[in-house]
Design goal:
Length: about 550
């Protein structure tokens, strides 16, 4: 009973369905035709199922697209950080008792270079045959020794703003110390960041060297008296420069630029902005995933995340934190002793080993930031000062201009030579006002799936929204038929047919038509009977005429 009911439901559905092939199967005249259309239906149904699988797999792979825009508009000037590569004045280190440990280290290092020293607490003696390792260990030891000194006690040996910056101008207009923010770096000592304060409004609407920042810096490798003021461990004479967005950690060690004395360093920068998609279409994050976020006071970047990961690795393996990186509130800094220095040196890794160092990409759960602005620098150099330039400066705190009346030098040539060994020009400017904006968005959304699904359904099955409604109705009827146990009528019975007024009306019309046909037939017959008797008379008359 129920099987017959299903057959009846399918027959009715096939008569009014818009689904391709179904009416052909139901209304086929013979078995061969029906089998042919069934094979066609199975084929197109299989192709549609395959395409549907591809669409679903593509959607759940969450592809992303990157839209590139080149914009041209007024830009906020980047933050420019400058530090003396020599972190502390050697003359102060030798005379200030707060720097006793640093001074002892400098003495041991100088003796190590000369080969006239014995054992020491830093382990320099073991590195006497490896010059590069000796320098690296001494540099690490200096950071650990200096970390034991408070910032207040460090102040006399640090370079002040007037020591470092002789002249400052932005787009040709003089700038002041208040435009810089000072901070103490564990490696480079006192550093000064231009335009870091959010209250400043330094921006540019024109590109080029004339509309950027110009600094005359003096690192004072030697004083005007000829006294050396650089630490023996300082390898380079110049400034460490970083260019970054406001709120970012400068990244002097990883992203800094070396600007040497005796040159004008022209740094042209271009801006690039990234707006990345969040999960599931991307992997960007806004903060470091680990709860011990060492750089929570800075804008999140991959560099801050990697540094935090390296610090956690250092604490886990050495039971102390590296002062080169940010320390957590519960961290204890490594001490300037051989054991801690050995551990820190070991974490750098030997590049000949199979496992040279921590694998930041594998061992750190770091993902790129969702919003990021980066500046790409291009540096060009020119000699400073030229042989004929007397060096003019408005600063009253430095050594002054190379006029003949300058009492710091015997003559103009001596002044120029001093600037050549101790001074430099730094110019930072925007190469262009155009910048690239990369926006990452969802590459395949629900709307795309629906569009592609409709196309595939129409191609293979001829389906439309109406077809879907029809099949939904079919499923509802079949479900109701199953739930009711076949009690639902799917076709009219004899009583329904007999009592249907539409059928009665049709029967009445049929009877009336039959009656009318019968009347017409009778009338035709009666007309025939009236005409028949006249025929013989006509023929008789014709016979008479013949006679």
């Amino acid at each position: 009973m129920r099987g017959g009911g299903f057959v009846q439901i399918f027959k009715d559905f096939s008569n009014w369905s818009t689904v391709a092939v179904v009416p052909h199967v139901a209304n086929a005249n013979n078995k061969i035709s029906r089998i042919f259309w069934i094979v066609i239906f199975v084929f197109v149904l299989g192709m549609f199922a395959y395409e549907l699988y591809i669409l679903i797999a593509k959607f759940f792979s969450y592809p992303a697209t990157v839209n590139t825009e080149i914009l041209f508009e007024k830009q906020i000037f980047p933050v420019v950080t400058v530090c003396n590569m020599n972190p502390y004045k050697y003359t102060v280190v030798k005379s200030n008792t707060a720097f006793q440990g640093v001074n002892s280290l400098m003495t041991a290092y100088s003796n190590a270079v000369d080969g006239t020293y014995g054992t020491d607490k830093w382990g320099l003696y073991e590195e006497q045959t490896e010059e590069y390792d000796l320098d690296a260990r001494a540099a690490d030891a200096l950071v650990l020794e200096a970390n034991l000194i408070s910032d207040t006690n460090k102040a006399p040996a640090l370079y002040t703003y007037s020591d470092l910056v002789q002249d400052c101008s932005f787009a040709g207009i003089p700038c002041a110390e208040s435009d810089f923010k000072k901070f103490i770096d564990p490696v480079y000592g006192a550093c000064y960041s231009f335009n870091e304060d959010a209250s400043l409004n330094y921006s540019v609407s024109r590109e080029g060297i004339q509309f950027g920042l110009k600094l005359m810096l003096t690192v004072t490798q030697t004083k005007t008296s000829g006294t050396t003021d650089f630490l023996p461990t300082t390898r380079l004479a110049g400034a460490r420069v970083a260019v970054n967005s406001r709120g970012n950690e400068p990244g002097l060690d990883s992203n800094g630029i070396d600007a040497g004395v005796g040159y004008e360093s022209a740094v042209s920068v271009t801006l690039t902005q990234h707006v990345r998609a969040k999960r599931p279409y991307g992997k960007c994050v806004s903060r470091e995933p680990d709860t011990s976020d060492y750089y929570k006071n800075f804008t999140y970047t991959l560099e801050t995340c990697f540094n935090g990961c390296k610090q956690r690795d250092t604490v886990a393996k050495c039971n102390c934190a590296n002062p080169r990186l940010k320390l957590g509130p519960a961290d204890t800094a490594c001490q300037p002793i051989k054991a801690d220095l050995d551990c820190l040196q070991g974490l750098k890794g030997n590049q000949t080993n199979s496992d040279p160092n921590i694998d930041l990409l594998v061992e750190c759960s770091c993902n790129p930031p969702c919003d990021e602005s980066t500046y790409t620098p291009t540096v060009s150099l020119a000699q400073f000062p030229s042989t004929s330039y007397y060096v003019a400066t408005s600063s009253s705190a430095g050594v002054g201009s190379c006029y003949s009346s300058n009492s710091n030098f015997a003559n103009k040539a001596a002044c120029q030579k001093w600037y050549n060994n101790n001074g430099m020009i730094l110019q930072v400017f925007l190469e262009t006002l155009s910048y690239e904006l990369y926006t990452e968005t969802a590459g395949y959304t629900v709307s795309n799936v629906i569009n592609d699904l409709g196309g595939q359904a129409g191609l293979w099955l001829g389906l439309s929204v109406i077809s879907v409604v029809e099949m939904t109705g079919l499923l509802l009827v079949m479900g109701a038929f199953c739930v009711s146990g076949g009690a639902i009528k799917i076709a009219p019975d004899d009583d329904d047919i007999a009592n249907d007024h539409r059928i009665k009306d049709v029967e009445d019309v049929k009877n009336e038509i039959d009656h009318m046909d019968k009347r017409h037939a009778e009338m035709d017959d009666s007309d025939g009977d009236d005409v028949a008797p006249e025929s013989p008379k006509k023929g008789s008359d014709e016979g008479k005429k013949d006679n």
